[in-house]
Amino acid sequence: MDFDVLTLFIVLAVVLAGTIGLFLLTGGRRLPEGTFPETRDADDLPEPDGPAGTAVAEDTDAAPLTTAEATAETVTEPELSEEVAEEAAPTIETPEPVAGRLARLRARLVKSNNVFGRSLLALLSSDQIDEDVWDEIEETLLMADLGTEPTMELVDRLRERVKVEGSRDPDRVRALLREELTTLVDPSLDRSLNVRAAGRPAVVLVVGVNGVGKTTTVGKLARVLVAEDKDVLLGAADTFRAAAAEQLTTWGSRVGVPTVSRDEGTDPASVAYDAVAAGIEGEVDVVMVDTAGRLQNKANLMDELGKVKRVIEKQSEVDEVLLVLDATTGQNGLNQAKVFSEVVDVSGIVLTKLDGTARGGIVVAIQRQLGVPVKLVGLGEGPDDLAPFDAETFVDALLEER
Ligand SMILES: Nc1nc2c(ncn2[C@@H]2O[C@H](COP(=O)(O)OP(=O)(O)OP(=O)(O)O)[C@@H](O)[C@H]2O)c(=O)[nH]1
After folding, report:
1. Containing domain of residue 1, as a range?
2. Disordered: where is this region (predicted)?
3. Is residue 93 part of a domain?
4. Is 208 assigned a ligand-binding role in the annotation?
């Protein structure tokens, strides 16, 4: 009898202990069979109905838990994920749309450059165009950095046409000047940017002397490309100054574009190589490589630039080599353009700071000397102050009445 009581007592104790243990393990919730989540990737889970996460937020008290609910509870820490989301999503700027940007920049071009056009018009409309007037016209063209040869050519053409037509009517004179200037600026040149490549990113290399606006141009151009829905990656191959890489990174991050940069003093060719490799790996549309400013008469620096291009070419063609020239340096830019072209085969010119000068004639001089088209113009320090160059718009802006 004593033995039976003892056995019963032991059995009851074991059952009670088991029940308490189970209760503690399950936290008091009833778990339906086969629904307890093992840790697994979210990808393995069935799609919950409705927007992600809402079911968990609304249903926490209801039993039983579904697999998705239970897993979400295990894996997701809402406060933590909100913090991460905030940190990972900085405010991305939306670049100015093309139409608005171009209208604004055209007005700026008119403002700084039509002094040149208007004085030409005034001279050509004068009652009597004697030798003094022709000398003044010549001087105006030279002052605008048109270059000697194009100036002589234009004056000859104008002399001839004014003589034949004999008209001083301002509208007629404007039309005539417009035609001749447009011919000089050459609307037939292909000014499109080569930023499309089949099966790989297009590679753009940006070069020039110090302080002309290379980094700014890369930043502005990245915005233009982002506005055109292109995936862009930047390479900071200006390793002379740490600040240059920071400047570029800032430009990029403002529009959500990543930048590959390395420590100051790193071989710029290796940074360029890494940037292009990252672009290929990430399957971006365009990789733009910024380089350090260098004087065209420093042979070692020009050799270094040649090496940057050659090293990139180990894994990709370079589709566009943009030489950035400061319009305010006038004819000086021509020497730079010549030497850079010999070293890296320049395919397009970016003429910056055209907002600060009435020397728009440099466009003609450069194209003549190099046979390379001006493709872009910088018209201010603002992020959206870069415009594609168009011969007719440019000439119209020169001759526009304000
Ligand atoms: N007004 C005006 N300023 C410009 C334009 N483009 C660039 N700048 C200014 O020119 C200065 C030099 O620009 P950066 O982009 O740093 O020139 P950089 O060629 O990269 O300079 P380095 O790397 O030192 O050779 C900056 O103050 C720019 O804001 C432009 O189109 N108009």
Report:
1. 1-30
2. 33-93
3. no
4. yes
Residues 169 and 304 in one domain: no
Instruction: State yes or no: ipTM above 0.95.
Output: yes
Query: Angle at Cα 258 formed by Cα 251 and Cα 352, nearest 5°?
Result: 35
Contact partners, residue 51, CB within 8 Å, separation at least 6: none
For a mutational test of ligand 1's pocket, the pick from 381, 384, 385, i.e. the residue with the most ligand atoms closer than 8 A to its C-beta, is 381
CATH number of the CATH domain containing 275? 3.40.50.300
* Ligand 1 in reach of 378 Cβ (< 6 A): yes
Ligand 1, atom 29, lies closest to the CA of 381
Instruction: Report pLDDT digits (tens) over 299-326.
Output: 889 999 999 999 999 999 999 999 999 9
Q: Report how far residue 108's alpha carbon sits from residue 236's, in angstroms, rounded to the nearest whole number.
A: 30
How far, in Å, CA of 360 to CA of 141, rounded? 10
Does residue 381 lie within any of the structural domains? no
Q: In this structure, are 314 and 223 located in the same domain? A: yes
Say whether both 115 and 131 belong to one domain.
yes
- State the pLDDT at residue 34: 32
User: Is the CB–ligand 1 distance for residue 244 below 6 Å?
Assistant: yes
Ligand 1 pocket, residue 268 CB under 6 Å = no
| pLDDT exceeds cutoff 90 at 193 | yes
